[in-house]
Amino acid sequence: MIKKVTFTAVVLVILVILFVVKYRDVADRFNPFLVKTYVYVQIDKPGESEPHGRVAYALTGFDAEGKRKKVRFTASTQLPKGTYLKVLAKGAYTEAYERVDEEALPKAFER
């Protein structure tokens, strides 16, 4: 009986670890220990088309303190090169983004 419970517990732990590794953005979305932060990015390359018609972006930006952060998000269309965005991120999960003017960027953002 104890062996079955131990085996089941080990299998569940392995499945949870695999889920977190594969679907990190989903795990981060519901993680209560992560804080939402704004990350400022500039579109510097075209996004990659996804099968369901969205365009995926993987960019590196900066938060208000100047810390470098990587963000991934999708858009319904290609965004113009040079566009500045303010991305609301929580770990690997991106909740929202909005276009901002260059004047609205924090001083820590490297232009």
UniProtKB/TrEMBL annotation:
Keywords for this protein: Membrane, Transmembrane, Transmembrane helix
Show the SUPFAM superfamilies listed in the entry.
Answer: BC4932-like
Q: Does the keyword Oxidoreductase apply?
A: no
Q: Which InterPro entries match?
A: DUF1093, YxeA-like_sf
Q: Can you tell me where the transmembrane regions are?
A: 6-23
What protein name applies here? YxeA family protein
Q: Does the keyword Transmembrane apply?
A: yes
Gene3D superfamilies (alphabetical): 2.40.50.480
Q: Name one Pfam family in it.
A: DUF1093
Q: What organism does the record attribute this protein to?
A: Paenibacillus sacheonensis
The organism sits in which domain of life?
Bacteria
Q: What is the lineage of its organism?
A: Bacteria, Bacillati, Bacillota, Bacilli, Bacillales
